[in-house]
Write a structure and sequence with these properties.
disordered N terminus; globular; Nucleotidyltransferase, domain 5; 7-stranded mixed β-sheet; 5-stranded mixed β-sheet; about 400 residues; single chain; binds adenosine-5'-diphosphate; alpha/beta
Length: about 400
């Protein structure tokens, strides 16, 4: 490991993003935040495979393949290759941690007491938090004195107005932390960071960001800060997603349990893993598969996806009191011209109007020049805001 006091030109920041079935990583040059290498392992739990690495240090990961593995083995495989690299001296590591609970509203330097608090939040995100914490432990065992920073998906939304955070439930439950936390905060942080360079003064106005990937949510930004978001206490709320239902009547959940006699775990499986694009189409959770299908249920699933974005965007606009710009990001948002067009059409009454050629080309600005409200496509990057946080928290100049 490089002495943290000396920043050589190949000194690097490691970023790990451990999901429920994947581990993504990125290495950034510590002085310029230039990405040196990005990649990930997918399919952990079934057939894990290395999805490849891109960037000037991608050669670190060439060669032997990863066989079927669990999270621990996959993370170990990654860290082992980074440790063997001659040209890289790690200065610090940053982690995406899904849940920061009520307390963490900013990135934090990890120590034993922070780890204990993060462990106490596992019940709030049981499918993700344990993997995030396992990645932290794996880095600690590989480089015991390396500074590590936790960056939270929830933190960006902690400054939302109180009314945007609380539910209409007994206040004693609110006081116990049953509030709207919101997620995808690192993605929204990145958009808030880069939007001024793209949209100028409008970036400080009233902006809706649509993060449309496997998971999907909207965030209402005012002056670059979150004032409302569609995900709630969990990442099940809000928009329709690949496999998740999004917002539904809580009474339906109660009915399935109380009247149909379903076990809570069965209802959870339906709402989290058998709903959304997959459930409505009965075909796939992958938008690409549905976009090339002429099965009426595939068409209906995509129509409902766009309709739900339009409906929730109306709610975000009401929270903002208007709209100065709209941003698409993440897999579907960045790459599906057809879904963007359906959403833009549903929002035409707000002054949104697409330029079809720009939309088809996935341009950065896809609205017509004379449209009242500009529409942008900006690639998601959850790793760069983590690297920035590492620099400011662990390696102040
Ligand atoms: P995650 O939320 O896991 O980070 P992504 O941001 O990669 O996911 O988004 C995954 C979604 O993007 C999937 O539904 C996938 O079908 C969709 N997607 C990826 N490429 C395209 C494309 N060219 N056209 C339409 N949808 C796409």
């Amino acid at each position: 490991m490089t002495d943290p006091k000396t920043r050589s030109k190949d000194a690097a920041i490691l970023v790990l993003n451990a999901g429920s079935s994947s581990v993504k990583f990125a290495l950034f040059a510590a002085d310029t935040l230039r990405p040196l290498c990005r990649g990930g392992i997918e399919g952990i739990g079934s057939r894990a495979r290395f999805g490849g690495a891109a960037g000037e240090q991608a050669h670190l990961f060439e060669g032997d393949l990863l066989e079927e593995s669990n999270h621990e083995a996959a993370t170990h495989w990654l860290l082992d290759r980074i440790r063997r690299a001659d040209g890289i001296g790690l200065l610090a590591a940053g982690h995406r941690v899904v849940h920061g609970g009520p307390d963490f509203s900013a990135p934090v330097v990890i120590d034993d007491s922070v780890m204990a608090r993060l462990e106490s939040l596992i019940p709030l995100a049981p499918a993700h938090q344990p993997h995030n914490l396992a990645a932290i432990r794996a880095v600690t065992s590989a480089w015991p004195s390396l500074p590590q920073i936790a960056c939270f998906d929830t933190a960006f939304h902690r400054a939302m107005p109180r009314l945007a955070q609380i539910f209409a439930i007994p206040h004693a439950l609110t006081d116990q932390g049953f509030v709207r936390y919101g997620f995808h905060g690192l993605s929204y942080q990145h958009i808030a960071d880069v939007l001024p360079g793209i949209a100028g003064e409008r970036a400080m106005g009233r902006v809706i960001v649509a993060h449309l990937g496997h998971g999907a949510s909207l965030c209402a930004l005012h002056k670059g800060r979150s004032v409302a978001t569609t995900m709630g206490f969990t990442a099940l709320d809000g928009l329709m997603m690949g496999m998740r239902c999004g917002a539904i009547d809580a009474g339906l959940v109660l009915h399935l349990i109380e009247q149909r006699g379903m076990a809570p775990a069965e209802v959870s499986e339906i709402l989290n893993r058998r709903s959304g694009l997959l459930g409505v189409s009965g075909i796939s959770n992958d938008a690409r598969t549905l976009l090339v299908s002429d099965d009426p249920r595939a068409v209906e699933a995509l129509d409902l996806f766009a309709y739900r974005v339009v409906r929730e965007a109306g709610s975000m606009m009401a929270a903002l009191g208007g709209l100065d710009a709209f941003v698409f990001t993440a897999g579907i948002g960045e790459r599906s011209a057809r879904i963007r067009a359906a959403i833009a059409q549903g929002l035409a009454w707000t002054g949104i109007r697409l330029d079809e050629a720009r939309n088809a080309a996935d341009d950065t600005r896809i609205s017509a020049d004379d449209a009242k409200t500009p529409l942008y496509v900006i690639p998601a990057d959850e790793e760069l805001p983590i690297a920035r946080a590492v620099i400011s928290r662990a390696l102040p100049a």
